[in-house]
């Protein structure tokens, strides 16, 4: 089994506070544990969440389409 989130880079960060259900937190912790086992690098759920969200947004066709249609071409 291979997880969708691979090795993690170290990008610039902005802090964001969110509240999630207990069940979702448990699932995120389980995912982080699996990721740690596969990557050989200890990682927690809070570290993975930004990458999960980016992956979700990158793969959302409706969102990508909306972004493309709202972008205006630059003048050359």
Overview of the structural elements:
With 76 residues, this protein is mainly alpha-helical. It has a domain at 22-65. The protein has three helices and no strands. It has helices at 22-39, 45-59, 61-70. It is globular, with a radius of gyration of 16 Å.
Task: Kindly summarize this structure in a few lines.
With 76 residues, the protein is mainly alpha-helical.
Describe the SSE topology.
Elements lengths: L21 H18 L5 H15 L1 H10 L6
Features:
76 residues; mainly alpha; 57% helix
- How many strand segments? 0
SSE string, helices as H and strands as E: HHH
Give the DSSP E fraction (strand runs of 2 or more residues): under 5%
Structural class: mainly alpha
Ends: how far apart? 47 Å
